[in-house]
Amino acid sequence: MARPAHPSTPARPPARLRRTLAQALAAGSAFLVLGACGGGNEAAAACPAAVPATARCLQGRDSAGAYYLIAVPQDWNGHLVLHAHGGPSLDAPTPERAVEDLTRWAIMVKAGYAWAGSTFRQGGVEVRAAAEDTERLRHIFRAHVAVPKRTVLHGQSWGAGVAAKGAELFTAAGNGGVAPYDAVLLTSGVLAGGTRSYDFRLDLRVVYQHLCGNHPRPTEAAYPLNLGLPAGATMTQADLNARTAECLGLDKPAAQRTPEQRARITTIEQVIRIPASSIQSHLNWGTFHFQDVTARRTGGASPFGNTGAVYSGSADDAALNAGVLRYRADPQAVARFGEDTDPGGRIPVPVLSTKWIADPTAFVELDAYFKGVMERAGSADRLVQTFTQNGTHSYISDPTYPTLVAALLRWVETGSKPTPAGIAADCLVQQARYGSGCSFVPDYQPAPLDSRVAVRSRP
Questions:
Q1: pLDDT for residue 33 is more than 50
Q2: Which H or E run includes 152?
Q3: Beta bridge partners of 67
């Protein structure tokens, strides 16, 4: 799909729609559905239940086909949190995805911030397009709601990579000398880019195949596992689930698995360094998302390789390393995928990140890699990283996020760079308003990514 170099600002809506919107906001009406460029098919609806009842919400579909949802609290503090969601889903976008995102991040509205999130125009692993869709939503907010005092770009999980890329792409230089984003918040981020963040999923594929031999089965046509699946292959999630149930017993409680199944799981846990509870999800990504990348993004070639990787932690590492399949990443596919997904670190505004230390989905070591990216780009002084003892990948805790946004805005307004210790202390204060859940570990420093994922030869 061809993409413009820069998202266009939506056309100013007709006077009738501007009056309708103004009346809806003044009356506290819940929803106004906007058409492709901000007008034409408005209809009322209710805000998600998790959002304060006094909030006003707008939803619509932008000129590129992405659905979006906006929430403005009654006591709006004037600041906007512009959200880039995780995933990514491989399915076509639906309005329900935006509702799910706002429901999860309702704490932002409760804390007084306006919130805006895009579903992105398409499913699949394409970072720049998602960053463009997010920037387009910023224009929509300014055109149809208000010009915020400050805009914080928030990326969650895979969306953290979207936000990091967007903060590099859209700067004051391309926005009339005015920075489009005042600060960036990266939470639970996949922050080493596509060419490094997913290496371990190929490792999982080859180790799983070595142990199980059923993905693909011997009776099925062989294919390079670094493709995920061949283009056009129609394996379903249910089929893959059946195969992991057969080999690993992932559909059963641990006590009901056979000794052989438990031994295979132990090998995967120790070699790939993920818990049993994450094997299925990472195998899914290493199958269906890899297929999306190779079939739709990189011209049929794979940017993933494991040449030179030495695996350790099994009962017989020599046999494992001799037996696993080996693949060389295609140099052109690596370059193409890296251009779209890899962070460059040239972010001109303050950046604050947080990661649950035990995150099994986006390893904490990814943050160490991202710090190096920022250092090499000369942007290290604009990055503060924080880490928490407790949480989940999808959501850490209610007091965590308002604390981080407030720290970012103070940094922007006063120039006072926050410290992990100061953020930890501020969060404890915020618990009186948002409930318990603070678990920042101020002195924590993640190990290098190469200490977690087997080092390999690269094109």
A1: no
A2: strand 150-156
A3: 61
Amino acid found at 5: A
Provide the token pair at 71. 């929430």
Answer whether 0.85 is exceeded by the pTM: yes
Question: Do residues 126 and 340 touch, judged by C-beta distance below 8 A?
Answer: yes
The predicted model gives 134-143 an average pLDDT of 96
What is d(CA 140, CA 97) in angstroms, rounded to the nearest whole number?
A: 18
Least Cα distance to 265 among 204, 214, 223 occurs for 204
What are the backbone dihedrals phi and psi of residue 71, each rounded to the nearest 5 degrees, phi first?
Answer: -130, 135
Q: How far apart are CA 123 and CA 396, in angstroms?
A: 25
Contact 279/204 with Cβ under 8 angstroms?
A: yes
- Give the containing element (helix H, strand E) for 320: helix 317-323
For position 5, what pLDDT does the model report? 35
ω into residue 48 within 30 of 0, thus cis? no
Q: What is the pLDDT of residues 353-370, one digit of tens each?
A: 999 999 999 999 999 999
Question: Which pLDDT does position 28 carry in this prediction?
Answer: 36
Q: Are 456 and 308 in contact (CB under 8 A)?
A: yes
Measured between alpha carbons, how far is 144 from 58 in angstroms, rounded to an integer? 9
Q: Are the C-beta atoms of 351 and 383 separated by less than 8 Å?
A: yes
Backbone angles phi and psi of 203, in degrees to 5: -55, -40
Q: Could you tell me the end-to-end alpha-carbon distance of the chain, in angstroms, rounded to an integer?
A: 27
Could you give the C-alpha distances from 153 to 128, 307, 340, 422, 423, in angstroms and in order?
15, 37, 19, 22, 19
Residue 255, Cβ density class (10 Å: 0-12 exposed, 13-18 middle, ≥19 buried): exposed
With a cut of 90, say whether residue 13 has pLDDT above it: no
The Cα 203–Cα 209 span in angstroms is 10
Q: Which helix (H) or strand (E) covers residue 55, if one does? A: none
3-state SS assignment for residue 440: strand
What single letter denotes the amino acid at residue 301? Answer: A
Would you give the DSSP letter of residue 354?
Answer: E
Please tell me the distance from the alpha carbon of residue 54 to that of residue 334, in angstroms, as a whole number. 48
pLDDT above 60: residue 23? no
